[in-house]
Specification:
The protein has about 200 residues and is mainly α. It has nine helices and four strands. It binds glutathione.
């Protein structure tokens, strides 16, 4: 199995962490969506990372779709995203919110990185970051400081996605130490675990 993408991409890294948690051996090609356009587009015509090339040769794209396959193939009776019911809905909702945070942080970054400085629209950046912070505040409010995990009493995809999301939000200037201390503490604890550490960018 071949994972295409760099781990500084939160979308790629959540797939790498999921593979590690499920104990699936894989190789990784550290390609970037912008730096290695031609090679990335050969695997994903949309030109985005991650892509996952299965041993059969089939290529999957988009972290949600890749993780859905990994849950189905390797999750057994306790996949990181529960198979049904209220627990499944809860994990999917929180995970979607955090994926949205990542997208908003990246929209803000792209505005600064991909447009000429005279065309950068600061209010758009501020609005994206305000949306990201608002969503993180909502997640902070869900955290029970004594619980080892974000949602259920076990590791789920909400925890995996929280680790990559909090890291990106902090890198983009959201002071999680001050504003989301529960999320910061939870994700720091998780990030120290070997299954997470191995993909640290
Ligand atoms: N929804 C996608 C988002 C993937 C994504 O936006 N990847 C970024 C890197 S962090 C990328 O490749 N951007 C290049 C581009 O959009 O051209 C997923 O979950 O995999």
């Amino acid at each position: 199995m071949l994972l295409i993408g760099v781990n500084r991409s939160p979308f790629t890294r959540r797939v790498a962490i999921t593979l590690n948690i499920y104990g699936v051996p894989f190789e990784q090609r550290a390609l970037s969506g912008f730096g290695d356009r031609a090679e990335v587009r050969a695997s994903n015509p949309l030109g985005r990372i991650p892509a996952l090339v299965l041993d059969s040769g089939e290529t999957l794209i988009d972290s949600d779709a890749i993780i859905d396959h990994l849950d189905e193939a390797y999750g057994g009776d306790q996949p990181l995203t529960p198979r049904e019911g209220a627990n499944r809905r809860a994990v999917l909702k929180v995970t979607a919110m955090m994926m949205g945070v990542c997208e908003k942080c990246l929209h803000a970054a792209y505005e600064g990185n991909h447009r000429p400085s005279e065309k950068v629209h600061r209010p758009w950046i501020d609005d994206c970051m305000a949306q990201a912070a608002n969503a993180l505040n909502a997640i902070e409010a869900m955290i029970e400081p004594k619980q080892p995990y974000l949602l259920l009493e076990r590791l789920t995809q909400a925890d995996v996605t929280a680790v990559v999301t909090e890291r990106l939000a902090r890198a983009r200037g959201i002071d999680t130490d001050v504003h989301m201390p529960g999320l910061r503490a939870l994700t720091s604890r998780l990030a120290e675990q070997p299954l997470f550490q191995v993909s640290e960018p």
